[in-house]
Amino acid sequence: MVADPAEWSRDPWSGDLADDHVWGRGALDMKNQVAASAVAIASLAREGFEPAGDLVFIASADEEVGKNYGLQWLCEAHADAVRVDYCVNEGGGERVEIAGTPIYLCAAAEKMSAPFRLEVHGRSGHASMPGIADNALVKTAPLIEKLAAYRPQATIGPEVAGFLDVVLGEQPPADEVLARLNALDPLAAEIVEPLLAFTLSPTMIGGSERRNVIPGRVELVVDRRLLPGQTPDDVDPIVRELLGPGDYDLETIERWGGTRSPLDTALWKAIAEWVGETEPGARVAPLCCAGFTDSHWLRDAFGTVAYGFFPMKTMAAELASRLIHSADERTHVDDLALGVDFLRHVARSLD
User: Fold this and answer.
1) Up-side HSE of residue 304: CA atoms within 13 Å toward CB?
2) Residue 291 half-sphere exposure, CB side, CA atoms within 13 Å?
3) Domain end: 257, 282, 311, which one?
4) pTM metric for this prediction
5) Any bridge partners for residue 312, and if so which?
6) What distance in Å separates the CA atoms of residue 324 and residue 159, rounded to the nearest whole number?
7) Are 301 and 249 found together in one domain?
8) 343, 319 contact by CB (below 8 A)
9) For residue 63, what pLDDT band results from cuts at 50, 70 and 90?
10) What's the structural domain count of the chain?
11) Quick check: 316 pLDDT over 90?
């Protein structure tokens, strides 16, 4: 936290200290936005604001746990309570400077999390006699190398196309995008790289539980992220061809996310207006969230236009992205106040 602790409870509107506004340490990837959303909706209510429709504050948890928790449960069990036309969620809002131009990123889509499990089969044996065994761990090693080295063919989806229009003023061929962006600003290439294709990241492995036992079975988990519109059924044949024949089984563990919202909406206009008023000369650029959020439950259930946008101006986006799920994850009190201002603006702009 880069702030005087005495400022943590300062009311962002009056500048006075207020007991009911607590601005302290929070997690970058959700808790800060939850706090700001609560303050924004409470302050509007105290002022007597009457929205054109229902203004709903949804505080749900465990979007990373999976089925039957949080927003999925609410959409199924209490649909009328969370049925909304527009949603502002996590996943974007970072301010970056690309070639000297300030740009706020807005997540209009998200990739699908579709991890899979490889079960590699061999034959166990005593480690002192490796010749009589068939080491499944050794058989797994070249598969890991293939997965880590693979780079699918690049494609340009609507969010990347919109980003390129803002940053480059044009859309080069997909196989030239990274080179063009690197020449302009390496940060732009870093943002777009995982959005041009599905990704494969081996992350977990389990084999023998004893040092002197050669494993006859190894389980490898691969974090696979698919572009919106792709499914595991589309990509499994590509993965199997990449790995080649072998004594293994491949099983998709789960599939979450992989949805998008259109860009020509009243909510997008409200976000762009706020950015222009807050920082003249700055622009909004769409992107597809490389991870996933629980916005997909709303999109799937109700056709909700859901964007990930919580503005972050004081803390550098490069630092913030590296702190997520990492040591000393934190946010800045000035960005909390900025987020409250944005959320109040959106609530007043939609009619």
Assistant:
1) 22
2) 12
3) 257
4) 0.84
5) 94
6) 23
7) no
8) no
9) low
10) 2
11) no
